[in-house]
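Researcher: Here's the sequence for the chain we discussed earlier.
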Amino acid sequence: RFGFQISISGGFSKVVGRAKRFGCETIQIFSRNPRQWQSEPLAENEVKVFKRGIEEEKINPVFLHIPYLPNIASVKEDLYSKSIRSLEEDLLRAQILGASYLVLHIGRRITSSEDETRERIIQAINNAFDEVKNKVILLLENASGQGTEFGHTFSQIKAIIDGVDDKNRVGLCLDTAHAFQAGYDLSREKRLEETIGELDRLIGLNKLYLLHLNDSKTPLGSHIDRHWHIGEGHIGLEGFRRIVNHRGLSHLPAIMETPRKNDTDDLKNMSVVRGLVK
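Model: Thanks. This is the structure I predict for it:
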């Protein structure tokens, strides 16, 4: 099932129409402005229209993405507390919107050691889960390793999941561009098999709930996060053909976060990726 990150501009009642226009079978959305801390309460009538539309058009699953500002790895106590509150809020908002999953950028460390960073992330997730008791599954998105990003290796992500008390509520979102930029070569068959094998061995394919299908504008191991159109970047068309047809991945929902100047970009990426499925 393929879809896109869909804009909530103008309200949630507009989302399903946009998703239909691009042929989405699954979608990812923000629940609020991703570049602000403050948020308005979700309007009941908007939520109703959104959920009815999702059901009628059989768009599922729905993924919510946490805003860009929170950093649950921060050693600054004020930012750390705000980030945990933001995570708790989005766990609640996901439930209200009927989203089964919440996608999280793991965090950035500035002065802390890797061990300290990991422990703060684990503590933040456990605190949020203690505060919000629902069935929304938190998906940790692998990073490209740009700057001080944490979570660009499968072993780092495994260590976080190992530390979470309620393991039923945490899983993985695999971003293909980020993985490639972090040094996992998805462009070649042998390397793809090795990457999926390592992921399965360390984390478990049963913990992988979502693919972010993005090509990479930057080379393998660049640690520079630049998404590009499917088949036009360094992973390439054949790389994506193998990814979408891989026995361990082909059943997963896939969200594209490819660059868009206008609707044509999304329509083209959807057409390309559908054309790769055997």
